[in-house]
Specification:
D-amino Acid Aminotransferase, Chain A, domain 1, 17 helices, single chain, five-stranded parallel beta sheet, 37 strands
């Protein structure tokens, strides 16, 4: 087996790989940029090598530096994690050419499945069903428009080299196609250096079903059942679970068999995921499930598969890369229980899910409630250079309903601060009636976005109780704590707090309520079906965005790629003002209320820093 391993990645996936490697007695080497000098993965590895400045294109995406670090430290192998260079066939080949072991599929397999149009053609030849669409070489806007019109709307424009939800646009009307195509191509060029696209028929009740496959160098390919990743926002997964709700035995067998055929068609070795789109309008049926793409790497959501099969997929990756056969045959892989994963992000759902940048002062979740996969701890920084994911919270229980309840409890009881997170959004989403019933599709979040991102107000009584608990020591009340309370003339005491949405509250002390309890330096409050987590107020990280006075500020460093209004123009609430490209994603900044653009300080192409004033809207 491999004895030393360099992880060409960062954050929680690097820590995840290190954990398994340590258990197997394998020496680990981390790489890090300027921004990650004190990161958790650097501290956990046996050795760490600096590879460049904070921007990924100058560090984590520079394959030559990563290979040089492996050779300099005597590492035998490179594990790419996911993202960055994990599906870069040229990098994989360079690793092999350097005499190192690549913990992943062969470069030829990555190339075969890396371009979505070529992959679909290969799947058709292998007898794997694919969605209707256009895969042609003619990339002129006129031809693409004609093909989209012929397929019938809605259609989905997808970057040929895309992944991770980037370079994808849904278009509902012919007259909107040109704008959607231009936006998709800009994002594809920025993220992948390739602006070619394909067009697919958009399924109106789509469910995202994916199958974990694994192959070895001896020709064996197995599946480890399916995951449902239908809860998405902007094509990025939010909640994942295994097995898929409503999946009957016959459909499961058909879909998993198709996944194995797909992997065998490219002589696949290592961990991979075959992604399918299903028309869920009449339940899951084998004849209404189509191949979308293959991810030739480990997936972010792989823990739910590990939980329901009892398999360590990273260990399998290392063993297969070492030349060993698969540890289990298909007949020995069994499905048991239910697992759900939520992605906890430093972002504000009430402001378009804009990232929340800054320091994490408090980070506490109970490992007794859930598996916590993270790459941060207290004192860590969420920077504008990388994905703002804080942790993956994974709960495994005997049934789906018990897993949902367990994950909601984990979210409600956990403490992260002072950054704004999506925890409240996730808690509501898991409690949504359609999700609890297993009636899910990829549009569920968008259809219910207003209610899922609402910020209901806790009552004054609840806040007063929270203030009392936070002002004293654990277990104190205003009657037992040394708060200066005097009979007849008690002093006024106010405590400033923030909730999980980043809102600040001031409350006077009061007697306890029966339906609240302390969680170290925070208090959970259950009221009218909503759960609040309130903690003492601390300095917030930079959030950017829209101020109450109508100031539109940059939520993070980025480039203004379009300005859609002019100074003096009348605008309505929610109208797009401009688009900022940051973290390889496009973020539309909108008017906070009806009014007039009183000030416009930037033009398209401008590079801006976090909190920079971009525009100001005055109320009518």
């Amino acid at each position: 087996m491999i004895q030393s391993l360099l992880i060409a990645n960062r954050g929680e996936i690097a820590c995840r790989v290190i954990r398994t490697a340590r258990r197997l007695g394998i020496r680990t080497v981390a790489v890090y940029s300027d921004a990650d000098a004190h990161a958790m993965h650097v501290r956990q590895a046996d050795e760490a090598v600096h590879i460049g400045p904070a921007p990924a294109r100058e560090s984590y995406l520079v394959g030559e530096r990563i290979i040089a670090a492996a050779l300099a430290t005597g590492a035998q192998a490179i594990h790419p994690g996911y993202g960055f260079l994990s599906e870069n066939a040229d990098f994989a080949q360079s690793v092999l050419d350097a005499g190192l072991v690549w913990v992943g599929p062969k470069p030829a397999s990555i190339r075969a499945m890396g371009l979505k149009d070529a992959a679909k053609a290969r799947m058709i030849a292998a007898g794997v069903p694919v969605t209707p669409g256009y895969l042609g070489e003619d990339q002129s806007p006129e031809r693409l428009q004609t093909e989209a019109d012929a397929i019938g709307y809605p259609v989905l424009i997808k970057a040929v080299a895309g992944g991770g939800g980037k370079g994808m646009r849904r278009v509902d009307r012919s007259e909107d196609f040109a704008e959607g195509l231009a936006s998709c191509r800009r994002e594809a060029a920025s993220s992948f250096g390739d602006d070619r696209v394909l067009i697919e028929k958009y399924i109106l009740s789509p469910r995202h079903i994916e199958v974990q496959v694994f192959g070895d160098a001896h020709g064996e390919v197995v599946h480890l059942f399916e995951r449902d990743c239908s809860l998405q926002r902007r094509h990025q997964k939010v909640i994942e679970e295994a097995p898929a709700p409503g999946m009957d035995k016959a459909t499961r067998e058909a879909v998993c068999a198709a996944a194995v055929r797909a992997a065998k068609a490219v002589h696949y070795e290592g961990a991979g995921t075959i992604e399918f789109i299903a028309d869920g309008s009449d339940g899951l049926r084998a004849d209404r499930v189509w191949f979308m793409e293959m991810n030739t790497r480990l997936q972010v959501e792989h823990p739910v598969t590990e939980m329901v099969t009892g398999v360590d997929l990273v260990e399998w990756q290392i063993r297969v890369a070492s030349g060993e056969p698969l540890p289990l045959r298909q007949k020995d892989i069994h499905l048991s229980g239910h697992a759900i994963e939520a992605r906890l992000y430093a972002e504000d759902p009430t402001r378009g899910f804009l990232p929340s940048i800054g320091r994490i002062d408090t980070f506490r979740f109970s490992p007794k409630q859930a598996r916590i996969d993270t790459g941060v701890d207290e004192g860590a920084q969420i920077s504008p250079f990388y994905d703002p994911m804080i942790a993956k919270l994974i709960v495994y229980r005997d049934t789906r309903s018990h897993a949902i309840a367990g994950l909601r409890d984990t979210l409600a009881d956990g403490v992260v601060g002072p950054l704004v997170t999506n925890s409240g959004f996730l808690w509501r989403l898991l409690g949504h009636a359609a999700f609890e019933a297993g009636v899910v599709d990829t549009g569920l979040i968008e259809r219910n976005l207003e209610s899922l991102t609402a910020r209901p107000e806790p009552s004054p009584e609840a806040l007063s109780f929270a203030a009392a608990r936070l002002a004293g020591t654990p277990g104190d009340t205003p009657w037992t704590s040394r708060s200066g309370l005097r009979l007849g003339a008690p002093p006024r005491r106010e405590v400033r707090m923030v909730d999980q949405f980043g809102r600040a509250f001031t409350a006077e002390l009061a007697t306890p309520l029966a339906d609240a309890w302390p969680i170290e330096d925070a208090v959970a409050l259950d009221e009218n079906g909503e759960r609040f987590l309130v903690r003492l107020e601390r300095t917030e990280g930079g959030a950017g965005g829209i101020a109450s006075d109508g100031a539109i500020r940059a939520p993070m460093p980025g480039r203004v790629i379009s300005v859609d209004v002019a100074a003096g123009q009348a605008v309505t609430k929610g109208q797009k003002l401009m688009v900022l490209e940051a973290m390889k994603m496009e973020h539309a900044l909108t008017a906070p209320f009806d009014g007039t653009v009183a000030e416009l300080t930037v033009a398209a192409g401008a590079q801006v820093q976090v909190e920079a004033l971009l525009a100001r809207v005055e109320k009518d």
